[in-house]
Amino acid sequence: MGLKKISILLSLALISLGVFARGDRVIGVWLTENQDSQVEVYKTPSGTFEGKLVWLEEPLDEDGKPKLDKENPERSKRTRPLLGTVLLKDFTWDAEAGEWKNGTIYDPENGRTYSAFMRLENNNTLKIRGFVMGMRFLGRSTTWTRERDVRE
């Protein structure tokens, strides 16, 4: 193989790594719009992105017990603690569109799961739009802010 071919292959490999690295920019801890919870976004072994609830400003209910996923449509999940619940699932990075798409977002306040996509406005601001019936214009958006660590 000639030096020129090796150089081209190496360049393509580095470009590919750059595209994958851009997709990883969403990884980290995010403070939700209401500033009452944090979600940690991570990459799964299958390469999709998920986010789980890792901090609640008020983690206990009125009885002093951990808040539960009481609104979950699956009866068996209504007794699980909210902390640790996966809210974001199955997002894939689309380099061409510059967004994470084909995912879902779970709203524990009403027990509903929505189709969703995410986009970074800048390195510290994440816009998430949940929608229904496959129509992006039928939904609502939320803005999360990057945090350094999980709060105590």
Give a short overview.
The chain is mainly beta and 152 residues long. It has one helix at residues 3-23, and strands at residues 28-31, 37-43, 49-56, 86-94, 99-107, 112-122, 125-132, 135-147.
Provide an overview of this structure.
Helices cover 14% and strands 45% of the residues. The chain is mainly beta and 152 residues long. The chain has one domain (26-147): Lipocalin, CATH 2.40.128.520. Strands 1-2-3-4-5-6-7-8 form an eight-stranded antiparallel β-barrel. The radius of gyration is 18 Å and the shape is globular. Mean pLDDT is 88; it is low at 6-20.
| Tally of distinct domains | 1
**Total helical elements:** 1
Spell out the helices and strands N to C. HEEEEEEEE
Structural class: mainly beta
Rg = 18 Å
User: CATH class, anyone?
Assistant: Mainly Beta
| Main beta-sheet annotation | 8 strands, antiparallel, barrel
Corresponding CATH architecture: Beta Barrel
Mean pLDDT: 88
Strand order of the largest sheet: 1-2-3-4-5-6-7-8
Task: Give the CATH topology.
Answer: Lipocalin
Low-confidence blocks of residues: 6-20
Overall outline = globular
Could you estimate the helical fraction of the residues in percent? 10-25%
Number of strands: 8
Strand content: over 45%
- In whole angstroms, the N-to-C terminal distance is 56 Å
